[in-house]
Specification:
4 helices, 84% helix
């Protein structure tokens, strides 16, 4: 059961990255429509949504939803899938918006976003391992 949860988590995280990679171009094309004066407001909205979904993601823990019932485990993965996908898509939107207005900051913001998302993935695995150790 423990290895099964780890494999499920790996698949979940890979699926999130693949979906976000496919949506990169869609988001990029959509953001080309924004006017320079609108970017500030757009980034504020993205920031508010990002804080909200990060709170939801970090408030969730596999430990509190622990169960030997596979449907409950699937529901746990589904919840973290939605939270983590939203985080990645919001980070993509932020990076692409910065690229439009501040191209010189694009590389550094992209790097920060990659590190932030890598930390979120590591947290997800840490939480799963912590859950498994207590069972």
């Amino acid at each position: 059961m423990a290895k099964n949860l780890i494999y499920q988590n790996i698949i979940k995280n890979l699926l999130i990255i693949v979906i976000a990679a496919f949506l990169w171009l869609v988001i990029s094309v959509s953001l080309q429509q924004l006017q320079v004066g609108q970017i500030g407001d757009f980034l504020i909205m993205i920031s508010i949504l990002l804080v909200t979904v990060c709170f939801a993601n970090f408030a969730f823990t596999y430990e509190k939803s622990r169960s030997d019932i596979s449907s409950i485990n699937l529901l746990s993965h589904a919840a973290t899938f939605v939270f983590m996908l939203l985080i990645l898509l919001l980070l993509e939107s932020m990076v692409l918006a910065v690229k439009v207005v501040y191209p010189s900051f694009y590389t550094i913001i992209l790097g920060f976003s990659v590190l932030l998302y890598a930390g979120i993935i590591l947290y997800d695995f840490w939480d799963l391992f912590r859950y498994q150790q207590r069972n």
